[in-house]
Design goal:
Helix content: 10-25%
Structural class: alpha+beta
CATH class: Alpha Beta
Number of helices: 3
Distance between the termini: 30 Å
Largest sheet: 4 strands, antiparallel
Strand content: 25-35%
Shape: globular
Number of strands: 6
Order of helices and strands: EHEEEEHHE
């Protein structure tokens, strides 16, 4: 079985959780502050994360495409705010692929 995690991350020196959340109008799924210790490493920059979930109780998608579409739908209304943040921080979409077997996984279909 294949499952997917889809999220956006905003990474920067200046980032404050409340300020970014207010800027977008929704809370971070997770926030890590510069200087915190995680996995025995000191974070060099702060990270504000927003995940895309199929439901409140489920973090992983069975379809990468569905997870990406849901995240993009969530972010499109705040595109201008995202564009502003990209001038002073790194903004990215992160996709995780988890599998319990070999073979399969995400594929990308191109149309002619």
């Amino acid at each position: 079985m294949h499952k997917y995690l889809v999220e956006t991350r905003i990474i920067g020196d200046w980032i404050e959780e409340e300020e970014v959340s207010r800027h977008f109008g929704f809370e971070a799924s997770q926030f890590s502050r510069k200087g915190e210790v995680q996995l025995q490493e000191v974070l060099l920059r702060s990270v504000w994360q927003l995940d895309s979930r199929p439901s409140k109780d489920c973090l992983e998608w069975l379809s990468l495409e569905e997870g990406l579409i849901r995240l993009i739908e969530k972010l499109m209304p705040v595109k201008r705010a995202l564009d502003e943040l990209q001038t002073s921080s790194d903004v990215s979409i992160v996709c995780g692929h988890f599998t319990s077997s070999f073979g399969g996984g995400p594929t990308f279909v191109t149309s002619a």
